[in-house]
Write a structure and sequence with these properties.
Its EC number is 1.1.1.22. The chain has 384 residues and is α/β, with parallel strands linked by helices. The chain is 46% helix and 11% strand. The structure holds uridine-5'-diphosphate-glucuronic acid.
């Protein structure tokens, strides 16, 4: 799709900011906002763009922040642009807006084309109007564009990610309780999710959330609350639960092996933080890998796409032979004393367990995503 637009000239890329913005009616700032040392969002890239705009802008326009930024950032962007303009003695009408993105890694185009909602934050009606026109083709239902003030739009993005992370940490805590009470958490998810007020989506228990967004945004919101003098008790619990959750698979293995790690071989299925990406940022697999390698265990890990990134990170363990990577789920099961599912890629959903049982030295599965029927595994001869 992009190729067609490139060859028609409708889309072009440019490294020169002045050229890129020359005739732009709307300018989007979509650079990253990584975690700073204290957990707050590092705005250096956003503000650098604002400074560059202040140096280059020659015409009236709407500047829109797409990046996930703390409340008040768009106002700072406006200030930085205006400072640059006044240094050049130019008077321009530059409006700022906030239009946070809600795209998921791996389904970004689909999420963009069919958004649940588009949030437009601006303190001037003209900004709302312009963005409403821009998004009109993507909104089957025009009520999906939610117009609000700048600050509310900026905050909404953090609140959305923090709420989703809260749902996950909540169900993960329920899953621990369920395991202890011999209850299937999947039954509970369906039972509570059938209440429309709760919903079945995005409350799958697992081995913790990762990625470049939830961990970073929860941390940034905690930092923001601290700065405002508000105790972020819920957010702290969400983060703590998630950190604990990422250690549970290792704890379960330790219990299973009674702490005796010598000559153990563990197979891992799935390394990326979620299916459909090779992204390892804050992935639960890293916590498990680090702990197993430290315990001296030999690890055979499989992922359809993330092995290159893992190989770079664990080059030493690979050259010493302690870590072997493969894209074949069956080859890593060979000779293993335990198989751990960490990321629920499609190819791991319905494997040939009879074949796997034959390949493993000790047939036992630790299901970090609750996708297998434990009774079925028991019937097939896997240890419980
Ligand atoms: C997330 C949000 O879902 C997007 O709406 C948002 O735009 C994006 O962050 C962002 O801020 O840019 P993403 O990080 O791509 O998107 O990944 P998700 O699909 O949300 O998954 C995040 C983590 O939660 C994964 O590790 C996944 O395994 C875990 N998860 C998700 C669960 O453990 N249980 C669930 O029910 C859902």
């Amino acid at each position: 799709m992009l190729r067609t637009h490139l060859s028609s000239g409708q889309l072009s890329f440019n490294q020169c900011l002045g050229e890129g913005i020359k005739h732009a009616e709307i300018i989007f700032i979509a650079v990253g906002t990584p975690s700073g040392e204290d957990g707050s969002a590092d705005l250096c890239h956003v503000l650098a763009v604002a400074d560059a705009l202040g140096e280059k802008l020659e015409h009236h326009c709407l500047v829109v922040t797409k990046s996930t930024v703390p409340v008040g950032t768009a106002e700072r962007v406006a200030q930085r642009i205006n400072n640059g303009l006044s240094r050049r003695s130019i008077r321009l009408n530059v409006t700022v807006a906030s239009n946070p993105e809600f795209l998921k890694e791996g389904s970004a185009i689909d999420d963009f084309m069919r958004p649940d909602r588009v949030i437009v934050g601006c303190d001037e009606p003209a900004g709302h109007e312009l963005l409403r026109r821009l998004y009109a083709p993507f909104l089957r239902n025009h009520e999906r564009l939610l117009a609000m003030g700048l600050r509310a739009a900026e905050f909404s993005k953090y609140a959305a990610n923090a709420f989703l992370a809260t749902k996950i940490s909540f169900i993960n805590e329920m899953a621990s309780l369920c395991a202890s009470l011999d209850v299937d958490v999947e039954d509970v998810r369906r039972a509570i999710g059938s209440d429309k007020r709760i919903g079945t989506h995005f409350i799958y228990a697992g081995c913790g959330y990762g990625g470049s967004c939830f961990p970073k945004d929860v941390r940034a919101l905690i930092r923001c609350a601290e700065q405002e003098g508000i105790e972020p008790g819920i957010l702290r619990a969400v983060e703590a639960r998630n950190a604990l959750q990422k250690t549970l698979l290792f704890q379960a293995l330790r219990e299973h092996f009674s702490g005796y790690w010598q000559n153990r071989v563990v197979a891992i299925w799935g390394l990326s933080f979620k299916p459909g990406t090779d992204d390892l940022r804050e992935a639960p697999s890293l916590v498990l890998l680090d702990a197993l390698l430290l315990a001296g265990v030999t690890v055979q890990a499989c992922d359809p796409v993330a092995t290159t990134a893992v190989a770079q990170r664990y080059s030493q363990a690979i050259s010493s032979g302690q870590l072997r990577l493969s894209t074949s789920p069956y080859s890593v099961a060979e000779g293993a004393d335990a198989l751990v599912l960490v990321t629920e890629w499609k190819q791991f959903r319905q494997p040939d367990f009879v074949r796997i049982r034959g390949l493993m030295r000790m047939p036992v599965v630790f299901d970090g995503r609750n996708i297998y029927e434990s009774t079925q595994l028991a019937e097939l001869g896997f240890l419980q």
